[in-house]
Amino acid sequence: MSHKAWMKTVPTENCDVLMTFPDTTDDHTLLWLLNHIRLGIPELIVQVRHHKHTHVYAFFVTATYESLLRGADEIGLRKPVKAEFGGGMRSFSCEEDYIYENIENELYFFTSQERQNIIRYWLENLRAKQGESLHNIHFLEGQPIIPELAARGVIQQVFPLHEQRILKRLMKSWVQAVCEAQPLDEICDYFGVKIAMYFAWLGFYTSAMVYPAVFGSILYTFTESDQTSQDICCVVFAIFNVIWATLFLEEWKRRGAEFAYKWGTLDTPAESIEEPRPQFRGVKRISPVTNAEEFYYPPWKRLLFQCLVSLPICLACLSFVFLLMLGCFQLQEFVLSIQELPRIVRFLPKIVLAVIVTACDELYKKIAYWLNDMGAW
Prior knowledge:
With 377 residues, the chain is an alpha+beta fold. It contains twelve helices and ten strands.
């Protein structure tokens, strides 16, 4: 319950992102990571706190307004421009910070989601140097430290804190509201564009479903009971659905483009430049596409592992489960053929099958994780 206890923490000016650790974390690990964050990311302000009920340590992470401005410039955060400078959305630039709306107001220029996104970007790009290690974890040169520690369980979780004031306002205007339009702009400001775009699509889809629902109900009401009439109505409804689906998709393209332009993501580059997962291994090289430094693993090695290791193991696991299932079925027939056995014993094969399926599920999950880590380097 320790991670749930931390999630009730009230955000203040001293914290935007919370990083928690298991209760077994030693002081050496905390000091090692704290030293790397303070030296590698001097823009961040980190406070170490201890939860008195769960005895778990956590890092309260935030940054100054000036540091956040530099971070917005670094990640190319898009912000609205003042009307006298052309309006619209533009990637933030510290050299021309005066052209952006609310730049003078430290409290309202960045939303909580934007502050947390900048801090998360810094944390995920804390890189290891050649030969660095923590206990039995040996980092590669240039490898992101915090995602690797999170994948190894050294860091329990890294999450942003909610602002209860905004959540209560959204609860009234969004969750508890009936027959009212969704506050999509407020959702976008708080949760980000991806979440807002999802609920925009969900609301548009729900509204669009009214047309086939009404038309189908009317068609069902006036359909006679004979087969010919039902066949005609089915054809008519199918034609209606084809037309409706086409119009729905085309209209959503327009509506989605409007939201993307409004929220400044219409010309955002693809997410292909995101960091690879922490377990990825390979040799460092210069990407022929982006000219940036990256880890590279030859595709032929991955294909060789998949053919010689992954495929045989998967087939063996499937065969094992299939044979166990046949064995349980045979046991079931054998038990049912003996009339003298108590009634409760007849359920024994089903119980055995349920236990085996549960055990295999845990075993196969570990095998799947191992194959994924090894076969997708």
